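The records we work with from here on pair a chain with its fold. The integers have meaning only within a learned vocabulary of local backbone shapes. A complete example follows; check for yourself that the lines match position by position.

:::
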Amino acid sequence: MNADVSGIHIASLSASQFATVYNLFSLVIASMVFTALYLLLSQGRVAPRYRNALVVSAIVCGIASYHYFRIFDNFKASYPAGDTVGAVHNLSNIEFNEAYRYVDWLLTVPLLLTELVIVLKLAKATTRSLLIRLTIAAIAMIALGYPGEIAAVGSAERTLYGIASTIPFLYILYVLFIELGRSLGRQPAGVRKLVDGLRYIILITWAVYPLAYLSPSLINDPAQAEVVRQVGYSIADVLAKPLFGLLVLAIAIAKSNAHTPTPNHNDELTTLDSPIELNRT
């Protein structure tokens, strides 16, 4: 019997524990797939300048959908059903590969940050600086987090990498919170509440990830800790991707409505100066 590559040796899961993770993975896949479709079909509801944000958000959900399909299949192969209903699911010789999550995050977290910056429509210099800083911090956070994830529970290596990955994690949250706050004054009145609320939603949503990471160290029962870890990561992904994408859509719609073009003075002069109008006067 092989240990799973996460470094957390779970010999078996009860039927209820298996069902909890199994059903949640199914829910996450449905959330990702249909949110991606909804975002793509909603492009006509926003101004052209905000449509790229919706496309990026749909891509994020699409990438996550693919990886959750892989995680789902891997989980079923790692813990196959027993001979009878309600039997324990013992770990097979197929490793449960936690790397799928980290590959997903390596691709989707920078894109998540990009879609937010796009929809805010900040100054070009600010946008460029934000994207560079946030992308570097996101890659560092994930690259440092994975060695800790696969290290043995309670080991110094797991603690060291956990602390190291927390530094860029906190930096990202700080930059987002501060920059979103600074952008409030430049947002239309109807958009400010959405953007301000998004700041706190980001803080609350992203806080789930370190709690899930810490669960094996906080819960004595290894199998229950593994379930809590998988549930925590899955819930955090739904909040950080589909829910975040829908909030970005709401902001894009509000900003599009706030900037709906109206005929300006030059347009009126052009109309009045047309030959038809002149002949009528």
